[in-house]
Design a protein that fits this description.
Layout (H helix, E strand, L loop, with lengths): L3 H42 L24 E4 L2 E5 L4 E9 L3 E4 L2 E4 L10 E11 L4 E7 L4 E7 L5 E8 L11 H14 L7 E6 L3 H7 L3 E4 L4 E3 L4 E3 L4 E4 L2 H8 L8 H26 L2 H11 L2 E3 L3 H11 L9 E3 L2 E5 L4 E5 L1 H12 E3 L6
Parallel strand pairs: 3-10, 7-16
Antiparallel strand pairs: 1-2, 2-19, 3-6, 4-5, 6-7, 8-9, 10-15, 11-14, 12-13, 17-18
């Protein structure tokens, strides 16, 4: 027979083993849930947003021997990278004030732009073949085919306007997002877009401060006493709160091509923010959850929790730096009221082939 001390010791071992097995079981369940969420999320992101499923494009030369999703470009056969996940990110400004003929109006109150203008537009490409994230910055003043609706929602037709205006022709929610996605897809020769995220510019201070601030080298003078902004080119500063907001939003409308200067700041901030978020999330995955919870209050998106789980865990292994950030080439001209950016379509097609397609011999099995 076992004495009392041996019995107590065996009970301790039994309780300890049971505790370990229970914890292990919980971990397996949690990991299983995460894996299932990843699988579902990946499946969701594989489907293009409604209205952009069309993959036929007018890029390249005609050739009867081409297979589905293939193009002939400069005597080389390319195939669309069907594993690529493309997300349209929109920074929405409902408070933009314009001055026309000495009178000011707000985009939020204007009948035709009530949904808010997409002052910042970025197309993010997640490529599992080379484990890279690429971002294309889209000039808000790019002149493209825009679907125009009147204040009662009646379709008026397609007109050539700044791409940023498309979001305004909608309800400011899902309707505006779907219309913006369709326009950008059409602008990029009908490339499929798999998801969208429309984020109010008001989210910037809270997201910025959630990472403890973002440090940048100021790209151009930003001197606006009314916004407590006194930053000079070359100065290294850690942006906090409202300063981060004004850094990516303000532009001197008295300077020609001022939007390009602001776009460079937006690209710089986005790259720096993404790198800092990735570093902090790698050390503590709760950072990604915290950012997601923060941005939810300011965001309209079709990226559900499953898709976010897939993206958050997948992106930790991906590379993203300034070399992966592209801008559209083109020419800025002064229109009757505002600046207009005309895209170099040859350069755009070359960029599309580079990022969305792969040479036939390089396609993974």
């Amino acid at each position: 027979m076992l004495d009392k001390e041996e019995t107590i010791e065996k009970k301790k071992i039994g309780i300890g083993a049971t505790t370990v097995l229970t914890i292990f079981a919980i971990v397996l369940v949690v990991l299983g849930i995460v894996l299932v969420m990843r699988m579902i999320g990946k499946g969701n992101l594989a489907m293009a947003v409604a209205g952009t499923e069309e993959t036929e494009t007018d890029i390249g030369e005609e050739d009867e021997g081409l297979k589905e999703n293939q193009i002939l470009y400069r005597n080389q056969v390319y195939t669309l990278n069907s594993d690529l996940i493309t997300i349209l990110i929109m920074g929405i400004d409902k408070e933009t004030v314009k001055t026309v003929g000495g009178q000011s109006w707000s985009a939020e109150d204007a009948d035709e732009f009530g949904g808010g203008q997409a002052d910042a537009l970025f197309l993010a490409l997640i490529n599992p073949h080379d484990k890279n994230v690429y971002v294309i910055a889209i000039n808000r003043n790019a002149m493209v085919d825009v679907d125009v609706f009147d204040k009662d929602g009646n379709y008026q037709g397609v007109f050539t306007k700044q791409v940023a205006l498309q979001h305004g022709y909608g309800d400011g929610g899902e309707e505006s997002c779907l219309r913006q996605v369709k326009t950008v897809s059409r602008m990029f020769h009908n490339i499929p877009i798999h998801a969208y995220a429309s984020i109010s510019m008001d989210a910037i201070p809270e997201l910025n401060d959630a990472l403890g601030g973002i440090t940048v080298e100021v790209l151009d003078d930003i001197i606006y006493p009314e916004y407590d902004m006194d930053l000079h080119q070359g100065e290294v500063v850690t942006l906090m709160g409202e300063k981060a907001y004004w850094y990516v939003r303000l532009r001197n409308e008295n300077v020609f091509n001022s939007n390009e200067l602001r776009l460079q700041r937006q690209k710089q901030y986005l790259t720096t923010f993404a790198a800092e978020a990735k570093n902090q999330a790698a050390a503590d995955i709760r950072t990604a959850v915290k950012l997601y919870q923060t941005v939810q209050k300011y965001m309209v998106t079709d990226i559900d929790l499953n898709s976010f789980t897939y993206l958050a865990t997948e992106a930790l292994d991906y590379e993203f730096d300034v070399e992966n950030l592209y801008s559209l080439q083109g020419e800025v001209v002064q229109g009757n009221l505002f600046e207009e950016f005309y895209i170099d379509d040859d350069a755009l097609q070359e960029l599309i082939v580079k990022l969305f397609y792969e040479p036939e011999e390089d396609i993974p099995n």
